[in-house]
Amino acid sequence: xxxxxxxxxxxxxxxxxxxxxxxxxxxxxxxxxxxxxxxxxxxxxxxxxxxxxxxxxxxxxxxxxxxxxxxxxxxxxxxxxxxxxxxxxxxxxxxxxxxxxxxxxxxxxxxxxxxxxxxxxxxxxxxxxxxxxxxxxxxxxxxxxxxxxxxxxxxxxxxxxxxxxxxxxxxxxxxxxxxxxxxxxxxxxxxxxxxxxxxxxxxxxxxxxxxxxxxxxxxxxxxxxxxxxxxxxxxxxxxxxxxxxxxxxxxxxxxxxxxxxxxxxxxxxxxxxxxxxxxxxxxxxxxxxxxxxxxxxxxxxxxxxxxxxxxxxxxxxxxxxxxxxxxxxxxxxxxxxxxxxxxxxxxxxxxxxxxxxxxxxxxxxxxxxxxxxxxxxxxxxxxxxxxxxxxxxxxxxxxxxxxxxxxxxxxxxxxxxxxxxxxxxxxxxxxxxxxxxxxxxxxx
Length: 444
Ligand code: GDP
Ligand code: IMO
Ligand code: MG
Known about the structure:
Blueprint: E1 3-8, H1 16-24, E2 29-32, E3 41-45, E4 48-52, E5 65-68, E6 73-74, H2 76-88, E7 96-99, E8 103-104, H3 107-120, H4 132-141, H5 153-172, H6 182-196, E9 200-201, H7 203-212, E10 217-220, H8 244-251, E11 258-266, E12 269-271, H9 284-292, E13 305-307, E14 309-310, H10 311-321, E15 325-329, E16 339-348, E17 351-353, H11 360-364, E18 366-374, H12 391-404, E19 408-412, E20 420-422
Helix pairs in contact: 3-4, 3-5, 5-6
This protein binds guanosine-5'-diphosphate (GDP), 6-O-phosphoryl inosine monophosphate (IMO) and magnesium ion (MG).
6-O-phosphoryl inosine monophosphate binds next to helix 4.
């Protein structure tokens, strides 16, 4: 029963969209297991660029069932827009399924997200303002609205009427925040339900049935390990579990059903939003990387902070995700840099620290200890074999692999699907038992 998890090893935007797209060819199903439309996953196909927020990155293949699992929080308006946008570009979205158990991001969650960030002022997390934290909070409080509630307007109205006064009271405490009315939101919800009904399913059984048939299932993470609510630099994190373990809870599979965890990282690092970032570059080199790498947030359009690669966090991410192999993205962006720095440990209060500190306060006091490597001048977008990379690029990859302790099996040298170096047989190939089946696609 081959389930493979694709997980970001850094602060998100590692290129998970490209990785999923490259690997999805061999797959029957791609499942998003956490997060919401805070994610922005880019897939480039020739001249076409697709920016996906909720729909899994396998949707561009006609044979794939795309599943939005129970661990995701869904803004129905975004999902409808995304489905419409994909259809308008000729992508068949008939096989997109969304879990009836996934929680709904409501307009008041978005307003509450903004209000809280305003009140935190200088200590704001720098969220994407997509209502993610407030929606997950309601889920934990057991007052959330689920996708299945959209299908029953009366039940929806009843549940909404119970919680909305508290939401409005909370919003009234922050100047300039809107108030919401039950009637208006209930009407919207009924329309969302009508539109999304054909896509709703008990996705846990869809996934389990696919695995039982021996089909390959990919679980696509959003965000990244260092933004994980438990394992990231709390409180500068998102409100879900991007780590590989989250794929089990959020996708509806057991740990023994996962046979491969592919970590995704880029050859340097980026971070969007606030929080400690030891290897951050604020100089011309950083600006150059940001420019070449087009490091602008897919969801918010904010410039991403840029820094050198951090191997302290890499070792941690490999451990907490039990990573079995790695896809290294954006190696091409480092071309033309004379000297590449790689953080191998931190100095915290005069002491050498080799392991990732769980406290954001400690991380904020960490100064990177770097090793230096000669760079390469050549553009490498056209390279398709490891042996054809410049020697110094090969050396950098070998050092990263050594620090990770697991093989780097795929190296990306450009955004397009084909701009990929396969070092070994693709990890998924051995797992394909038979051509993917679409039997069992059943809106429950
Ligand atoms: P995700 O959130 O992890 O899916 O990553 P994003 O899509 O937000 O950001 C990664 C960006 O880098 C996207 O614009 C990709 O098209 C692009 N990208 C991915 N791999 C490569 C690569 O190897 N080289 C270059 N130049 N761009 C890449
Ligand atoms: P993908 O899937 C990068 C960051 C936000 C903020 C923190 C909390 O494209 O890699 P939230 O809105 O989730 O409450 O914000 O998390 N963040 C991301 N950063 N890539 C993402 O997604 C992100 N999703 C959230 O910038 O710092
Ligand atoms: Mg992204």
